Structure formats: C-alpha cells, structure tokens
Amino acid sequence: MATMTGSPHPRRDPRHIDIAAGTAEHEWQADGRLQTLPEIELCHLVPPRSRAVVLAPHPDDETLGCGGLIARLAAMMRDVSVIAVSDGERSHPASSALASRLALVRPAESRAALECLGAAYNELLRAHIPDGHVRRHRAELKTWLLSQLRPTDIVFAPWRLDGHPDHEAVGEVAAELEHEIGCKLVEVPIWGWHWAEPASGSFPWGRAHKLPFDAATEWKKRRALRCYHSQIARDGAHDPVLPAGVLAHFVRPYEVFFL
C-alpha cells in the first residue's frame, strides 16, 4: 500500500484518501453488515486444481488484503503465486533516510512476511513497474502478466474502485485478462476500508463475502504485518505510512472479497 494525500481523480471523484483521517474500524463493526456477510469456503474460493495468484501493487498489499488466504493455502501445500507489481520505492518522501533503499527494503519485507505466513517456498515474482505510475505502464504490465497467468488461475487483485490509482489500474488490467484468457478475478478492498463509509452506498455489500480463519492463521497474519517496518514505524518526524487506525482494518479474523 502506498499512501496518498489527495483524490486520485481530482474534482470529479468524491473519494479522497487522507492518511490523517478516514473511516475508523469501529464504524465498520458498528454497522453490523460485516458480521452477517456470507462466508465462503476456501475450496470454493480457490478450487483444488486452481492456482491462487495475488497481485500486489506495492509490497505489503498481498499481506494486508490476502495474508490469511495465503496462510491457509500454504498450510494445505496449495499452489500460490504472489506478484509484486512495483517495488514500493515511492512510499516515502525523498527527504527520508529510507528513500534510497526502499526498492530493496520493501521486497525484503514481503519475503519476510511470506515466511511468517508459512509461504516462504511459494512463488514471489516482481514486475518492476514504477511505483505510482502503474496506469502509465498498464500496457507493459498487461503484457507481462499475459506471460505469467493461466486460464485456470484465481487472480486476487485490488478492487477497481479502491481509491488509489495504482490499485485501480492493477484491478482494471486483471479484469481485462479475466475476459481475455479466462482466469477468474476476485477483487480485494484495501484502501476502500479507509475512504468508504459503510452506509454511503459506495461499498458493494452485495458482492462481498468473507473467508474466516482460525486463531493460528490470524496470529500468522498479525506477525506478518509486523514485518513491514518501513510502513508501520515512524520515519524521523514523519508518522507511519500505515498508522494503527489503518492497520486495524486488516487484523480481523477474516478477509473480505468481492465476487
């Protein structure tokens, strides 16, 4: 996840990602609909002969949105491939002491997180699309993904209305590939938890299903999230890229997917 301070579509889109403010987790829980979402069984979400492919616009998105899914599949020795679209090299300002090292630091954090999820031996690929410029390079990304995806894959990609341009571009490319090669797209809300409001009509409750997991899987995901030190720790005088209020959306004992 890469932070934003303004709308990805100024003046025409009401969405606005402001890291200092957003929909708190207690508001989602108070709405009640999360508790009553239909549950989906893992074997129906990812059928036995299918590979799960998780598209992460930035290193950490795979764990935020699909960490529990990855852990459950890895425990069953199922085929999982994680694709980092960018290396997350622009998550910090140029003035940050980390800025020059992010292209190495963030992929390393993802590898450590996958190890915590029990998926150290699963495939982790990097497309090296420039962070923050996925839409500009969407044709390049699509061509690269065409060489990697199979018709039988279940592709987990960010929600096409997730509010961040990189996330949305990845979701749009995945939707095109679903139509062209036959892989199945499952959309994953990530920034949507922060900008959307439960009762506003912007959240597609009718498509939402949840994948529950046990306490051991929840613990693995929480441990994996702690691997992203560059994102969850303060950077000198700067607040964390992922403050506690944002992380709260991703430590539930389930994950939500749009089918």
Order of helices and strands: HHHEHEHEHEHEHEHHHE
Strand content: 5-15%
Report mean pLDDT, rounded to a whole number: 91
How would you classify the helix and strand content by structural class? alpha/beta
Strand order of the largest sheet: 3-2-1-4-5
Overview of this protein structure:
The structure is a single chain. The chain is α/β, with parallel strands linked by helices and 259 residues long. The protein has one domain (48-258): LmbE-like (Rossmann fold). The chain is 36% helix and 13% strand. It contains eleven helices and seven strands. The protein has helices spanning 25-31, 33-36, 42-45, 61-75, 102-116, 138-146, 165-181, 192-195, 215-225, 229-232, 244-247, and strands at 52-56, 80-84, 123-126, 154-158, 184-188, 208-212, 254-258. A five-stranded parallel β-sheet has the order 3-2-1-4-5, sandwiched between helices. It has a two-stranded antiparallel sheet with strand order 6-7. The radius of gyration is 17 Å and the shape is globular.
Provide the fold topology.
Layout: H1 25-31, H2 33-36, H3 42-45, E1 52-56, H4 61-75, E2 80-84, H5 102-116, E3 123-126, H6 138-146, E4 154-158, H7 165-181, E5 184-188, H8 192-195, E6 208-212, H9 215-225, H10 229-232, H11 244-247, E7 254-258
Parallel strand pairs: 1-2, 1-4, 2-3, 4-5
Antiparallel strand pairs: 6-7
Helix pairs in contact: 4-9, 5-9, 6-7
